[in-house]
Amino acid sequence: MSEALANLLNETRQFPPPAELAANANVTAAAYDEAAGDRLAFWERQAGRLTWAQPWEQVLDWSNAPFAKWFTGGRLNVAYNCVDRHVEAGHGDKVAIHWEGEPGDTRTVTYADLHRLTCQAANALTELGVTAGDRVAIYLPMIPEAAVAMLACARIGATHSVVFGGFSADALTNRIQDASAKVVITADGGFRRGKPSALKPTVDEAVANCPSVEHVLVVRRTGEEVGWSAKDHWWHEAVENASPEHEAQPFDAEHPLFILYTSGTTARPKGILHTTGGYLTQASYTTHAVFDLKPETDVYWCTADIGWVTGHSYIVYGPLSNGATQIMYEGTPDTPHKGRFWEIVDKYKVSILYTAPTLIRTMMKWGEDVPAGYDLSSLRLLGSVGEPINPEAWIWYRQYVGRGELPVVDTWWQTETGAMMISPLPGVTEAKPGSAMAPLPGIAADVVDDQGESVPNGGGGYLVLTEPWPSMLRTIWGDDSRFLETYWSRFGAGANAGDKWVYFAGDGAKKDDDGHIWLLGRVDDVMLVSGHNISTTEVESALVSHPSVAEAAVVGATDPTTGQAIVAFAIPRGSAEISGDAGEQLIAELRNHVAKTLGPIAKPRQIMLVPELPKTRSGKIMRRLLRDVAENRSLGDVTTLQDSSVMDLISSGMGGGR
Ligand code: WT7
């Protein structure tokens, strides 16, 4: 166990909710009792927070477990719930999005604006031949059109697949092909680190290999010149000239809303499928409960990108279904200066801030003087997501951003869970720094040992979810068997728990003496780099696709800022020149090659050129030993190693460096 994790488990401080927040909280301790009494009735009440065109007949149909159906027979429109109903209730002039471009340009989008734009985009997509059930890929920077594009798809029943703008042409191609997307919505580019960063050339490269794509809609953002083909249409022509009248049709509660790709333990990403009624119910309820969101007075800001599930559930669907006013920021936290985030909090009087541990640790590195330079007194609640937050970062966040007073909600969930699962409730929970605490009302989680037995308090093992939940993934797009194998075969039905289906999250966890849950990171071959899921296999495949690499092994090494960092070991091909400068050059080339193949987020921090890789007798790469090397530890047990001299060779090194 790393030193940071060991510290985390010695943490004993506890912080009760501020009295005023507790007294006015949207959700009180009673919610736990209600949900424990009748879980399905509890979720049924939360579904009732939405507007349904037709009520459901059954809350949960688990007859074909683990393929769940929630709110069967119910019909609703997601965009209607996120936009129209707020306008109909007289809140058309209310700001939905305060958008801040990286260069400092701004836009204010009211709910009436959002309604008009979404209707126009829905009409434009319909005009391009998109109908319910078709897939639309979205590859956009953080501009209001990203939310509009998602809502327009939801409005007409098209299933969106948002691909993070930092992904490469290959990654985009794979995702478009896997879902056979008919339309791609993109932009000329966005602003990043003070300059335009193009997106359209990447789409052009991808679309050339994607025969399913009939049309490409292009938002003009940077104004830079772009290549143009017969499939391309400008957004400002197609959408802004379309009719603003559009009547939203209701869709079945199980209609596919979106696919979002996440890394698995093989090189092929998994298309996580989410549907309509259950997803929106839980995204909406958790926004209300965990952020204690008061739409009349709060200004909410989630700093995630729309390309990740956090952006889906806590920028688009959760906040908008609750009628929130929120901030959307295009750029990086240190452009043009390191106080940019705090400047935004100050400027818009942000009251609820939701960000990631990697950002908090970066802010720590920059020093508390930076936030101290701004008025952050509007803040009343802080959230964290994406990876385990170490107590030091939790305390720093509370102290220097939260005036030493504000509650910090550490929210555990996954692309697969669709919405928050384990988190404090800000008006109820006495939070412990570094712990996600307890399953939310209506959620059942446990920590089990290798045999699938629940561990006693004080014990550690694997995090599992023991009852279905409304926003659970329904399957992996086009691959039911991978869905069964990845999530449902490790524990539960067929294994040790009789007929019970148990969802394996892939995370290690511990229960403390009070039974509170501490997340300890992934137990599979998925790395968490700045909170982003990247599979070791994916990076290994990218490396061996380079002509100078014979074999590669990749590990996630502890990193003070990014949580984990990618460290690669590569065996050069016999013909590759690696002595002296040539080795350094090859390393630089390989790092760029991975960035080009998978996207800049997957660029290894470090690559070591090695003559061999440590393998077990059965030929499995011993990543544990490589992690020891990557983290500069003395080597652990090498007894199962096929040839122990390999490790001497690696440690003495043929090449390496950052
Ligand atoms: C993995 C899921 C949830 C949206 C962003 C990431 C890790 C997430 C926490 C947390 C400890 C966390 C887990 C999980 N994770 N939140 N609060 N504490 N670990 O979504 O890319 O699907 O990654 O992120 O390891 O399995 P994702």
Automatic annotation (TrEMBL):
<feature type="binding site">
    <location>
        <begin position="386"/>
        <end position="388"/>
    </location>
    <ligand>
        <name>ATP</name>
    </ligand>
</feature>
<keyword id="KW-0067">ATP-binding</keyword>
<comment type="similarity">
    <text>Belongs to the ATP-dependent AMP-binding enzyme family.</text>
</comment>
<dbReference type="GO" id="GO:0046872">
    <property type="term" value="F:metal ion binding"/>
</dbReference>
<dbReference type="InterPro" id="IPR000873">
    <property type="entry name" value="AMP-dep_synth/lig_dom"/>
</dbReference>
<protein>
    <recommendedName>
        <fullName>Acetyl-coenzyme A synthetase</fullName>
        <ecNumber>6.2.1.1</ecNumber>
    </recommendedName>
</protein>
<feature type="binding site">
    <location>
        <position position="522"/>
    </location>
    <ligand>
        <name>ATP</name>
    </ligand>
</feature>
<feature type="domain" description="AMP-binding enzyme C-terminal">
    <location>
        <begin position="538"/>
        <end position="620"/>
    </location>
</feature>
<feature type="domain" description="Acetyl-coenzyme A synthetase N-terminal">
    <location>
        <begin position="30"/>
        <end position="82"/>
    </location>
</feature>
<dbReference type="Pfam" id="PF00501">
    <property type="entry name" value="AMP-binding"/>
</dbReference>
<dbReference type="GO" id="GO:0016208">
    <property type="term" value="F:AMP binding"/>
</dbReference>
<dbReference type="GO" id="GO:0005829">
    <property type="term" value="C:cytosol"/>
</dbReference>
<dbReference type="GO" id="GO:0005524">
    <property type="term" value="F:ATP binding"/>
</dbReference>
<dbReference type="GO" id="GO:0019427">
    <property type="term" value="P:acetyl-CoA biosynthetic process from acetate"/>
</dbReference>
<feature type="binding site">
    <location>
        <position position="530"/>
    </location>
    <ligand>
        <name>CoA</name>
    </ligand>
</feature>
<feature type="modified residue" description="N6-acetyllysine">
    <location>
        <position position="620"/>
    </location>
</feature>
<feature type="binding site">
    <location>
        <begin position="410"/>
        <end position="415"/>
    </location>
    <ligand>
        <name>ATP</name>
    </ligand>
</feature>
<feature type="binding site">
    <location>
        <position position="310"/>
    </location>
    <ligand>
        <name>CoA</name>
    </ligand>
</feature>
<dbReference type="GO" id="GO:0003987">
    <property type="term" value="F:acetate-CoA ligase activity"/>
</dbReference>
<dbReference type="InterPro" id="IPR032387">
    <property type="entry name" value="ACAS_N"/>
</dbReference>
<feature type="binding site">
    <location>
        <position position="549"/>
    </location>
    <ligand>
        <name>Mg(2+)</name>
    </ligand>
</feature>
<keyword id="KW-0436">Ligase</keyword>
<comment type="function">
    <text>Catalyzes the conversion of acetate into acetyl-CoA (AcCoA), an essential intermediate at the junction of anabolic and catabolic pathways. AcsA undergoes a two-step reaction. In the first half reaction, AcsA combines acetate with ATP to form acetyl-adenylate (AcAMP) intermediate. In the second half reaction, it can then transfer the acetyl group from AcAMP to the sulfhydryl group of CoA, forming the product AcCoA.</text>
</comment>
<dbReference type="InterPro" id="IPR011904">
    <property type="entry name" value="Ac_CoA_lig"/>
</dbReference>
<feature type="binding site">
    <location>
        <begin position="192"/>
        <end position="195"/>
    </location>
    <ligand>
        <name>CoA</name>
    </ligand>
</feature>
<dbReference type="Pfam" id="PF13193">
    <property type="entry name" value="AMP-binding_C"/>
</dbReference>
<dbReference type="InterPro" id="IPR025110">
    <property type="entry name" value="AMP-bd_C"/>
</dbReference>
<dbReference type="InterPro" id="IPR042099">
    <property type="entry name" value="ANL_N_sf"/>
</dbReference>
<keyword id="KW-0479">Metal-binding</keyword>
<dbReference type="Pfam" id="PF16177">
    <property type="entry name" value="ACAS_N"/>
</dbReference>
<feature type="binding site">
    <location>
        <position position="507"/>
    </location>
    <ligand>
        <name>ATP</name>
    </ligand>
</feature>
<keyword id="KW-0007">Acetylation</keyword>
<keyword id="KW-0547">Nucleotide-binding</keyword>
<feature type="binding site">
    <location>
        <position position="544"/>
    </location>
    <ligand>
        <name>Mg(2+)</name>
    </ligand>
</feature>
<feature type="domain" description="AMP-dependent synthetase/ligase">
    <location>
        <begin position="89"/>
        <end position="469"/>
    </location>
</feature>
<keyword id="KW-0460">Magnesium</keyword>
<dbReference type="InterPro" id="IPR045851">
    <property type="entry name" value="AMP-bd_C_sf"/>
</dbReference>
<feature type="binding site">
    <location>
        <position position="546"/>
    </location>
    <ligand>
        <name>Mg(2+)</name>
    </ligand>
</feature>
